Amino acid sequence: MSEAYLLDAVRTPFGRYGGALAGVRPDDLAATVVRAVVDRSADLDPVDIDDVVLGDANGAGEDNRDVARMAVLLAGLPTTVPGTTVNRLCGSSLQAAIDASRAIETCDAELIIAGGVESMSRAPWVLPKPTRAFPAGDLPAASTTLGWRLVNPRMPAEWTVSLGECNEQLAAERGIDRERQDAFALESHRRAAAAWDAGRFSDGVTPVPGIDLDRDESIRPDTSADRLAALAPAFRPDGTITAGNASPLSDGAAALLLGSASAAASLGRTPLARIAGRGVSALDPTRFGFAPVDAADRALARAGIRWSDVGAVELNEAFAAQSLACIDAWGIDPGIVNAWGGAIAIGHPLGASGARVIGTLAARMRAERVRWGVAAICIGVGQGLALVLENVAVAEEVAA
Fold it and tell me: In the chain, how many domains are there?
């Protein structure tokens, strides 16, 4: 068995729904970050890349037909570089990183690009084929942007409610009120804006060619508690979840370079972090927002550490309610979670978010001199994923 290391991470700025990136095809977004992560290693010969593994949650439009392979070709990599696309909904690019790390650990590969892409703006409507010829009535088109569509009638109705309704149920179960959710959302915007202003993201974000967007488009540095409180509930007339305390629909892509110790040495790169533990969990579909709790606990156990050892956490903020539920369940200091802002401000392009939180976590761990960190994400239909990173530089200092 080998060890798997994170060598580099890069992403596009995340665009809002119908915003600056809405005119860019998802396969072009993916090609942008694949090309960028290659170009950032001067000694990397693309022919040495064993595989490209990208996550993609929808895959119903221009991201069809294995968007990872399309990205390889559009990025100008040698045609000998393979590509595969994985789908675990919101966790797709975190799953891509997990798959890549396993291949490196088992010595099936030395160097892999992992990551993901999503254009929620360009996700198409789909029209199912009729069950018989010449139907007389209308046929409905289903939006593939988010959530359930073309639902199997055998699926229990209580499982196929909206993602927002699921989190209204979770908020009620865990006693998380509207005021606390709005405060969490406000802090996400404040932290993200401050991180951009401080140059925290400057090294890890690459521009999209031809697009005038130099930072995440959904961040609202001028929002306030009063503005958030004025928003109407989105899913229940008397509910607590609004457009302000949930992540926005987004477009974007992210890529990670993972490799073995020998690959790192050949590239002259000092690894950012070691992949130290992985965890996946599942529960009832309506409670998907709580699934990261068990996933992270499993990843920590496999890394051989406890929450008391962890100094940084990146938890994808699908909704403030589910983020707060997870933080409460872990019993950790909220100050170590999403210190540079989260998805409520930055955005949540489904297939790219897992790689985004991994890249941000590694950058934070390096900046804050933290040895252990956790990246976690909730996944629709009742799943959660988590990854534990170990800061290689700090680990070597401890060993010395």
Answer: 1
